[in-house]
């Protein structure tokens, strides 16, 4: 009788281990996992957001002068677009290890790699946005005494903003997804949880991290839409 009781107890999950993500159950959706691992999930989410935002901002800082250079010197446009597109075709499994000798196993490796990937979208959107400004608007601004700098910052960029923001939204959502690949160097944010969930068949961890990635992409995209509406009030009544 004692042996039967011991055997039955051995089959039951430990009282200290939540049943819904124990090895015996391993549910996809588990509230106990969210509670017990809250700190780990929050840290991964914060890291994911930080890497994404810094990478997109760095990509913009690089893309802006490249777009201006391509616009000022049309002979270089094809070369600039070819290089930025070529970088995007390099698999992340190859790009990140190539950066490691220079930046080490740090978040900087992931940020630089993601910023380079974002260039193919950001450079093109900046170029197309600047081209969408009507020539007569430029001529009128020049006639009013605007120099090149004033024309760019006060006339062209505001009018190009809708096209630029569309590209920025695509680049941001793409970067949210690509950030997960940073788990190759242990700085993948939610990608670290996804990787661990796959390797250990930990369903709750895998599912939670995947859903959070989707939610982050949706939230950041919505924030950019709101920012565009605030920055371009003249387009609110325009239907496309």
Question: Any overview of this molecule?
Answer:
The protein has 240 residues and is mainly alpha-helical. It has one domain (38-232): MetI-like fold, CATH 1.10.3720. 77% of the residues lie in helices and 0% in strands. The chain has ten helices and no strands. The chain is elongated and about 75 Å long.
What low-confidence regions span 5 or more consecutive residues with pLDDT below 50?
Answer: 1-15
| Count of strand segments | 0
Question: How would a crystallographer describe the biggest sheet?
Answer: none
Principal-axes shape call:
elongated
Radius of gyration, rounded?
Answer: 24 Å
Question: What's the rounded overall pLDDT mean?
Answer: 83
Strand-pairing-aware structural class: mainly alpha
Domain module tally: 1
Distance between the first and last residues' Cα: 77 Å
Order of helices and strands: HHHHHHHHHH
Kindly provide the name of the CATH class: Mainly Alpha
Count the DSSP helices. 10
Question: Beta-sheet strand percentage?
Answer: under 5%
CATH homologous superfamily designation: MetI-like
Tell me what the CATH architecture is.
Orthogonal Bundle
| CATH fold-level name | MetI-like fold
- Helical content stands at over 70%
What keyword list fits this structure?
240 residues, elongated, 10 helices, 0% strand, disordered N terminus, MetI-like fold, mainly alpha, single chain
């Amino acid at each position: 009788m004692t042996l039967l009781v011991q055997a039955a107890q051995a089959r039951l999950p430990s009282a200290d281990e939540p049943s819904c993500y124990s090895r015996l159950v391993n549910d996809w959706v588990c509230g106990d996992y969210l509670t017990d691992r809250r700190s780990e999930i929050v840290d991964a989410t914060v890291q994911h957001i930080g890497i994404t935002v810094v990478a997109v901002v760095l990509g913009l800082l690089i893309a802006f002068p490249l777009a201006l250079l391509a616009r000022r010197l049309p002979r270089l446009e094809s070369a600039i677009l070819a290089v930025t597109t070529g970088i995007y075709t390099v698999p992340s499994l190859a790009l990140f290890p190539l950066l490691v000798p220079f930046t080490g196993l740090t978040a900087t490796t992931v940020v630089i790699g993601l910023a380079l990937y974002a260039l193919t979208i950001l450079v093109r959107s900046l170029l197309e946005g600047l081209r969408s400004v009507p020539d007569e608007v430029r001529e009128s601004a020049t006639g009013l005494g605007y120099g090149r700098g004033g024309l760019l910052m006060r006339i062209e960029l505001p009018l190009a903003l809708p096209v630029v923001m569309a590209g920025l939204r695509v680049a941001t959502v793409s970067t949210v997804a690509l950030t997960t690949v940073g788990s190759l160097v242990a700085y993948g944010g939610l990608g670290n949880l996804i990787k661990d969930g796959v390797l250990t068949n930990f369903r709750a961890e895998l599912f939670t991290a995947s859903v959070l990635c989707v939610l982050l992409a949706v939230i950041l995209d919505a924030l950019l839409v709101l920012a565009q509406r605030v920055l371009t009030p003249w387009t609110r009544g325009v239907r496309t």
